[in-house]
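Run Sulfate/molybdate ABC transporter ATP-binding protein through structure prediction, thanks.
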Amino acid sequence: MKGLDARVVVRREAFALDVALDAAPGEVLAVLGPNGAGKSTLLGALSGLLRPDEGHVRVGDETVTDVAAGVHVPPHRRGVGLLAQQALLFPHLTALANVAFGPRAHGVARREAEERARGLLAEVDAAELADRRPGRMSGGQQQRVALARALAPRPELLLLDEPLAALDVDATPAMRTLLRRVIRGAGQTAVLVTHSALDALVLADRVVVLTDGRVVEQGSTREVLARPRTAFTARIAGLDLVPGTAGDGGLLAPDGTVVAGRVEGAVAGEPAVAVFPPSAVAVFAERPKGSPRNVLPVRLAAIEPRGDVVRLRAAAAPGGPAWVDGLAADVTPAAVADLGVEPGADLWFAVKATEVMIHAGNPERPVPQFGRVVPG
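Sure, done. The structure for Sulfate/molybdate ABC transporter ATP-binding protein is below.
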């Protein structure tokens, strides 16, 4: 038995979604992808709010959608819970009544429904909110109650649609920890849509990456984020990525230059990507001499403070490679001060070959080119 088994095809005039995915009972599957990739369309089909043009959705032992057989179970009867960006609590009901609403709608007696609701409110650290209405709660408190409400009908499948996106920075870590504890504790099968690599790492067992309505990457969370095969995944994982073809001891970029690095699992002549962290990139005002094997001329596009480091974002330099946009280097504030630069300045990024990992790329869908490293 699977917690979820789905194949969803949705056709629109300018967009088509064709995705197959599954999740074992108790598994949390993260769905990542850029805006317009089809994540919301996929959730709509899983929840029953959208009828696909082809395919099926099986939740536990029940087929809730089968286009060929004419089966389409309505949302409230398919054993699926939803936690969205906005809590969407009933404003006229207390927290207790909001959480008890689902079980009551499924025929559970009032006393039993309220007992279940009190237990869930305690699980999400919101017991003290039982008699409070949404208007008297913070955003984080509302989201805790919304999580309890989503779990109250005991759904076979829980859909999490960017559940932390609307929370302020102070409430997000606590809610992320709470989600992990409650979902794991309940052994809940879940599909999490998120733009956050941290959310995926903390909450998900596996990751599926969508681009243009298709799955372009999938696997265990740590492997996908550590070994990204597309520019989007590299960006959310906080890594720089250069696409090309695997060669002996390096990656052959589309223009013929070679990126020196450690080849791991890539086959010579096959699509591959070179990946390295922004922290491995050294930045120079003049072309460096000496040990760096990979040296890249860039024009500084942006300076982004990030806690204890400053991220320097690259764009194309005059006469330099045109596909460097988006490469990043993380340096100290002192290094930025020593460089004395601002956006528009011409710089050099340098990366040692030992810091570059080269692994198999996506053979079905080429990744956008946004970086080139030329040998020094």
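The longest helix spans residues 172-186.
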